[in-house]
Amino acid sequence: MTQVTIYTSPICGYCTMAKRLLAGKGVAVTEIDAGSDPQALQEMMTRSGRRTVPQIFFGARHIGGYDDLVKLDRAGDFDAALAAG
Fold it and tell me: The Glutaredoxin domain covers which part of the protein (predicted)?
């Protein structure tokens, strides 16, 4: 299965909602705290081109933030995107 990585911050409500959506789909995630770790934040910005959390990756593919994840799910493309990783 494709590895899912999510960059988060402890005080981020959107991060919590994204993790809940992924867990509801039965997807295990690797969570990286970009809110407390400047090196992780820099890594996230380099990989995604964005500064805000959450940033979600299916394998090497950047999905985006929470809104992007919801849009992918509502369009019915979640499973295909996860498989393509």
Answer: 4-63
Task: Print burial letters for 35-48: b (CB count within 10 Å at least 16), e (below 16).
Answer: beeeeebeebeeeb
Q: What is the extent of the structural domain holding 9?
A: 4-84
Report pTM.
Answer: 0.95
pLDDT at 85: 85
- For the chain, the domain total comes to 1
Q: And the tokens for 12?
A: 């981020």
Q: Report how many helices (DSSP H) and strands (DSSP E) the chain contains, helices first.
A: 4, 4
Q: What is the number of other CB atoms lying within 10 angstroms of the CB of residue 12?
A: 18
Q: Please give the backbone phi and psi of residue 8, each rounded to the nearest 5 degrees, phi first.
A: -135, 180
